Amino acid sequence: MSDLETTPPLAAGQIEIWKKIVDVQQHFNDLELRIRNFALIVTGAFLGLGGYAIRDGGTIVAFGWEVSVAGLVVLSAIFPLLAFYFMDRLWYHRLLDGAVQAGIEAETALTDLGYKVGLGSSISAKSPFTLWVSGKRIHSKTKMDIFYLMLVVTLLVVGACLGLGVRHQPLPVPPVEVSGNEGESSVEAVSLAAVPAPSDNPSGTDGLGVSESAGSDADSAKE
Predict the structure, then answer these.
(1) Cβ–Cβ < 8 Å for 75, 162
(2) Higher pLDDT, 191 or 143
(3) Are 69 and 58 contacting, i.e. CB atoms less than 8 angstroms apart?
(4) How far apart are CA 88 and CA 8, in angstroms?
(5) C-alpha dihedral over 83, 88, 94, 99, to 10 degrees?
(6) Distance between CA atoms of 57 and 49, rounded to whole angstroms?
(7) What's the pLDDT tens digit per position in 31-77?
(8) Does residue 110 contact residue 21 with C-beta atoms inside 8 Å?
(9) Which of 151, 128, 126 lies closest to 39, judged by CA?
(10) pLDDT tens digits, residue range 153-211?
């Protein structure tokens, strides 16, 4: 015979209720872990998009400030992060708190029936820790706030550095490379330009020669 068959009906029913409550606790806890996992993925994705946007170097003027588009991309990740925080902190965590409280009550009822069950009570006692800086007890809600606060601060710091530190850089003009043949052709062109053009005088004399011959004819006529 199984244990449930030998257990009194009241205790057997209470045990089944406690098991179902534990399943609900695991369900809500799994949902919260998935939400935080998605929050980390989204934060990393926006940081990667911001790094990719640095390549374009685009900037806009907002409220008189020249802001890089890369910084705005990183800062925009805060909005989906706040949505994740709302679902985690103000939605499913409250449901998880209710399930934990119901589990503690079920365990108390089992304890009154002679069963030693203290899972929920032990977890609630071990979950908080003492912060060594201030000596304050940190519970699960404060842990969640610190988790999302770290992500928001990271986005603010990186977004501010990218938004105010990245500026559009003009593309450098590539130097014009002259090959060896082109250089020789240029030198030859300059050399040819320096040589005077041949004269159209069939006698092969230039203007100076004509002047000298004219002067010789004049001297002969005087004699």
Answers:
(1) no
(2) 143
(3) yes
(4) 40
(5) 150
(6) 13
(7) 999 999 999 999 999 999 988 888 776 777 777 778 888 889 999 99
(8) no
(9) 151
(10) 999 999 988 888 766 655 566 666 655 555 444 444 444 444 455 555 544 444 444 44
Q: Token pair of 75, please?
A: 């800062």
Structure tokens at 205: 């004399």
Residue 127 token pair: 């979950």
